[in-house]
Amino acid sequence: MSLRTITQIGNTVRADSAPPTITNVLKLDSKAELDALAKRLLAPAASIPPKYFYDEIGSTLYNAIVLTREYYPTRTEAAIFERFRRQIAAVIGEGKQFVDLGSGDSVKAEKWFASLKPSRYVAVDISETAVADALARLSGLANAPDLCGLITDFSRVLDVTPVAEKKPSVFFYPGSSIGNFMPDEASWFLRQIRAHCATSDCGLLIGVDAKKDKARLDAAYDDALGVTAAFNLNTLNHVNGLLGTDFDVHDWKHRGFYNEAFGRIEMHLEARRDVIVRIRGEARSFYRGERIHTENSYKYAPDQFRALLTEAGFSDVHLWQDEGGDFNVFYAR
Ligand SMILES: C[S@@+](CC[C@H](N)C(=O)[O-])C[C@H]1O[C@@H](n2cnc3c(N)ncnc32)[C@H](O)[C@@H]1O
């Protein structure tokens, strides 16, 4: 544990200590990254990787999406965690290093602190603002574990060694973020987590959305308030800031729907009219109705995902579900 000064304020005990260390290995603005982004926008089937959702506004909008009536995954996952928390904690065991992949505001992770009593909390995210805010908040908690942050893009490679210690760990990947990878990429990602498990006393707690009725899925990714639409459209502003492009949000509309053939949600930005966008000195014409693909979110039947875990080298797989079978929580080691 790091050294802390304990301050008593009324009934609250606050720990004052040096701010948590945040290590930034991210090169989102590196020339190679920006070249790759420009190439994707200039390609005949244009796309933007979902990691570009998450600038400061994007992270805030994500936190609003999970509050919308239509977006069931977060509240269903939370209900499974609440209902089975003791059981899940008993399987995982206390005192491990807790590595939170795509930690965002760290609110989900914090709820595990009391039952898992982690020795260390490692917040891993692409958004430095999100991690800095979350760790600042957590460092004010009484009995907070050691806190540290890693700013990285784990869609390129998952390497937590700059900050994580070689000790029994639980990797936490909630919110069905695994669905943003194509199934073969998901398998690659899971294998990397498995490879990080230096000892056998290490595992992965992961939330995975299930396949279900198209109408519910369509609504979840195209809410009536337009919060998901704003989240998707904001990507264009983020890209403008990074790449110097001149996308005008007014020229585009959000599309989010379930593609049953692929078993995935697709999000796109669709041109409202013919538009020309300057991308690295080139004029890219988009015709009315043309789409930029911004996200996939694959949905998995429990057995399908269990097979992915097994292929990745996990052998002991536990599953918890809500009564409706809308969402699955796995712990695998
Ligand atoms: C859907 S949010 C989930 C946040 C939180 N874990 C939860 O479940 O509520 C996804 C999080 O992953 C982060 N993220 C997205 N792509 C990433 C990438 N390629 N590398 C690292 N973090 C990423 C985002 O910044 C965001 O905080």
What are the salient characteristics of this protein?
disordered N terminus; Rossmann fold; binds S-adenosylmethionine; alpha/beta; 33% helix; 333 residues; 26% strand; 8-stranded mixed sheet; 3-stranded antiparallel sheet; 10 helices
Q: What does the model show?
A:
- The protein is of the alpha/beta class and 333 residues long.
- The protein has one domain: Rossmann fold.
- The protein has helices spanning 31-42, 56-65, 72-92, 107-110, 113-116, 128-138, 183-196, 214-220, 227-243, 302-311, and strands at residues 5-9, 12-16, 21-24, 97-101, 120-125, 146-151, 169-173, 203-209, 252-259, 264-271, 275-279, 282-286, 291-298, 317-321, 327-332.
- The strands form 4 sheets. Strands 3-6-5-4-7-8-15-14 form an 8-stranded mixed beta sheet, with helices on both faces.
- Helix 2 runs antiparallel to helix 9 (227-243).
- Residues 1-15 have low confidence and may be disordered.
- S-adenosylmethionine binds at residues 51, 54, 59, 62, 102-104, 108, 125-127, 130, 152-155, 174-175, 177.
Provide a compact summary of the structure.
This protein is α/β, with parallel strands linked by helices and 333 residues long.
Write the layout of secondary structure elements.
Blueprint: E1 5-9, E2 12-16, E3 21-24, H1 31-42, H2 56-65, H3 72-92, E4 97-101, H4 107-110, H5 113-116, E5 120-125, H6 128-138, E6 146-151, E7 169-173, H7 183-196, E8 203-209, H8 214-220, H9 227-243, E9 252-259, E10 264-271, E11 275-279, E12 282-286, E13 291-298, H10 302-311, E14 317-321, E15 327-332
Parallel strand pairs: 3-6, 4-5, 4-7, 5-6, 7-8
Antiparallel strand pairs: 1-2, 8-15, 9-10, 10-13, 11-12, 14-15
The protein binds S-adenosylmethionine (SAM).
S-adenosylmethionine is lined by residues 51, 54, 59, 62, 102-104, 108, 125-127, 130, 152-155, 174-175, 177.
